[in-house]
Specification:
Number of strands of chain A: 14
Strand content of chain A: 15-25%
Helix content of chain A: 25-40%
Radius of gyration of chain A: 19 Å
Oligomer: homodimer
Amino acid sequence: MITVLAGGVGAARFLQGLVRVVSPDKITVIVNTGDDVEFFGLHVSPDIDTVTYTLAGLVDETRGWGVGGDTFHCLDSLKNLGYETWFNLGDRDLALHIHRTRLLREGLSLSQVTASFVSSFGLSLTILPMSDERVETRVNTDAGLLGFQEYMVKRGAKDRVTGIELAGVKEAHPTKGVIRAILEAQGIILAPSNPLISIGPILALKGVKEALKDSSAKVLAISPIVGGAALKGPADRMMEGLGMEVSAYQVAQLYSDFVDIFIMDNVDSGLKGRVESLGVQAILTDTIMKGLREKEALASLAIAALEIKCR
Amino acid sequence: MITVLAGGVGAARFLQGLVRVVSPDKITVIVNTGDDVEFFGLHVSPDIDTVTYTLAGLVDETRGWGVGGDTFHCLDSLKNLGYETWFNLGDRDLALHIHRTRLLREGLSLSQVTASFVSSFGLSLTILPMSDERVETRVNTDAGLLGFQEYMVKRGAKDRVTGIELAGVKEAHPTKGVIRAILEAQGIILAPSNPLISIGPILALKGVKEALKDSSAKVLAISPIVGGAALKGPADRMMEGLGMEVSAYQVAQLYSDFVDIFIMDNVDSGLKGRVESLGVQAILTDTIMKGLREKEALASLAIAALEIKCR
């Protein structure tokens, strides 16, 4: 059994490779819900949806999120009713938020709802929201304290980040199954996701870091920073704002308490020695997942490094 | 001030004429909510929406309901998630249901929500849901007890109707403003709507019939039955199933306790004497509202018969 800690687009692309290397029913993905947000009374879970749509083959490949070929007619009408519509929810995409919201209102937990639609999409891996309780990632910036989607989507990640708050994270519990999935895994992978606002909230939940240390499985992380820049999203700008070095080394350092193996891009070969000085095995490869071939190669390498026999 | 009791399509078409004859801010429409229904956790008010979309110029003219040129992508996706999707909710249309549901959940009443979006659509008439409390029209048929939309839309009104139940009508109160709108009107019009399941639920609410009798204004009704058939919808089949005569006379008879004037179609001239024997003034005209010209003519005639000076 493989357990993956995941954010949105980068994780989803890696998982597309992983399900081709490991039988999906042996994979548990623990997904960040710190970016969850309510629009028009509907509960949206961006990272869960991106992972689900990507694995179901429905994702808009260019954007990396939402449903390919979707239309935005409902959103246009909501705008006419006076709503702010900077968060692009397509008509096909809205179905999932309507469904989720209905089931949550009826008393199901986020993890029960997620399990039900993951199965509707024909997927056989397990997707666990990191928590059934609300954790809200907020970003302190020179423009004030912003909700994550406000910072990211409404304002285009243009503000200087001076801090990150994970509201509710101290009170929240990991979803039932999260700790066990970590403790009982044969291998654990931190996907190439934003270490601060995708993997960070999962790590900040009660007991998660301890479980990663206690697990007998090896823990492997893949750097989302390549050549000093984030492949997708604002990780680099956030790290810079927080006074961190923007490098794969910095990511390895953030994870060094519990990570055994760190996969970084060939272009960062100069950082190998520093990463190894953290007591972490550094592996160099091509981490840019252009197509299915590269995704599968990266997943195969991770599985090999974790010394897991899959087939 | 004119007060109109209204159902869906027939009433909406009549109101398109009325707003051209009377200043819209002098019109209050009391709309049936017995057909209201929840789909996918969203509150849908079919008659209010039909009236609103029609007056806003957005309605699908052919169907008489929904938004013209709408797409059904969200509904397709809901179907993939396992929902029954026999009730056609278009993408643009869904915005209104999402909006209404959000505001209801936040604690606003149906009439407050309705007022807010009627104004968003640029309309200056007053639309009052008949009640802020739930009244559910159910139809007893040879296929069992059915919700109205189930009878009407899902099963195509094909079942023999043996009874009509208005669940909750005894406990429900008319919306604030309904009784006053009737008592203080200069003229009252029962639109050409289904007398059993559109006008009937409004009349069944506490105090409504009494107010119609007590109002000093004249009460005028327009027959939705022309030449022994309903122009739209299942009124004729329902009346037949309940053992009623399917005629304009039968409609006049149902309203005879409080109606002063009854407008019926020229084709029903043979029924004039019988209608007048009910103590009701019968007026014959062309009631079929093919276009705006006919709608306006019918509205003008009603206003003239009510002896209201408008301009």
